[in-house]
TrEMBL record:
Gene3D superfamilies in the cross-refs: Hotdog Thioesterase
Record-level Gene Ontology MF annotations: long-chain fatty acyl-CoA hydrolase activity
Name of protein: Acyl-CoA thioesterase
Keyword Hydrolase tagged: yes
The organism's place on the tree of life at top rank: Bacteria
Entry's Gene Ontology cellular component terms: cytosol
Amino acid sequence: MDSEARTLEMVFPEHTNPLGNAFGGFVLGLMDKVGSYAAARRAKKPVVTVAVGRVEFKVPIRSGDLLEVVAHVVKVGRSSLTVQVDVYKERFGGGEETRVLATRGELVYVAIDREGKPTRVDA
Ligand SMILES: CC(C)(COP(=O)(O)OP(=O)(O)OC[C@H]1O[C@@H](n2cnc3c(N)ncnc32)[C@H](O)[C@@H]1OP(=O)(O)O)[C@@H](O)C(=O)NCCC(=O)NCCS
């Protein structure tokens, strides 16, 4: 599938606050990276992030959780691509029955040419 990207990442203590919950910025960074991979796959061109839409942190993510970040292109414009990014958390060693949707957001990317200007994405 050319408009999807995914990755797995472990949450380590350095990604958390003193309460043991993951920093929102750590999760957002993962979402932005994987979202850009999905957008660039679809565009077949480099992309940059132009906007981060609504992001919902539904349940806390803790140190030791395994995160699966799944990104799908949901809309393609002239040069822009909107990507839905879902973050599932799973207890490391807990099995798939511990897997829950933890965070969801929409990010927008723009395909760029060599000068960094917006360039058309093929339909
Ligand atoms: C992204 C960038 C190349 C766009 O350049 P621009 O001249 O403003 O582009 P345009 O106004 O022609 O818009 C290009 C596309 O982006 C979309 N767009 C622009 N701003 C947007 C926003 N705030 N939200 C959603 N889409 C947006 C436009 O609707 C357009 O979509 P379309 O081509 O599918 O119709 C430029 O703003 C840029 O380089 N920004 C910095 C990107 C960056 O460094 N990101 C990393 C984060 S630090």
